[in-house]
Amino acid sequence: MKTARWGLMILLVSPVGIAAAHPRQNQAPQQDPVAAAARRTRDQKKDQTKTSKVYDNDSLPTTPGGINIVGQAAPAGATAANAPATDQGAAPAPGQANPAAGANPAENGAASAEITSVKEKLQSLQKDLDILQRTFTLDQQMYLSKPDHDGDKIGGAKLKSEQSQMADKQQEIADAQKKIDELQSKLTASSSAKQ
């Protein structure tokens, strides 16, 4: 009798379990709205065609001695407004008048050339100083990271040598800047005296 009861219970409960599981199998899985939007966007991008400009010898201007610039031309009024300010000792652009040119062209040309060469030397010295400072910083970090850096006499001597090299470069930079200032003041004084 007990078996009959259990059998009857199983028969009655199993359709309920099957019916409860059956609707879940037929239901479509819920989609993430973010993922669906991403799929739609990706599909739209695939449909769009990208047109790109191809530059070749036929589409570039061929002016002898000219400069080929790829891109849109700047508006006429924007070129003068966006032009960088020129130094006093720098050579004027073609078509512009040099205010000191009326004084003595040979003197002004020599002074301008000397100013240009000193400026180039100054830039070189500044780059050298920058490299020395970076090297010193790295060497100092390596030296100080050692637990027994007080006993490292070679590392300490190297750091002192680098410091003296940096001081020498800074002095050379100051001298070069002073020379540029003197040359520019001479150039402006000679041009104003002759006018």
Quick overview:
The protein is 66% helix and 0% strand.
Would you write up a description of this structure?
- Residues 78-103 have low confidence and may be disordered.
- It is built from five helices and no strands.
- It is elongated, with a radius of gyration of 40 Å.
- With 195 residues, the chain is mostly helical.
- The chain has helices at residues 2-26, 33-47, 76-81, 105-145, 153-194.
- The longest helix is centred in the last third of the chain and has 42 residues, at 153-194.
- Helix 4 runs antiparallel to helix 5 (153-194).
- Helix content is 66%, strand content 0%.
- The protein has a domain at 100-194: Helix Hairpins (Orthogonal Bundle).
The number of helical segments is: 5
Proportion of beta-strand residues: under 5%
Largest sheet: none
Write down how many β-strands occur, each being a DSSP E stretch of 2 or more residues: 0
List keywords for this structure.
195 residues; mainly alpha; elongated
Layout of strands and helices, then pairs:
Blueprint lengths: L1 H25 L6 H15 L28 H6 L23 H41 L7 H42 L1
Helix pairs in contact: 4-5
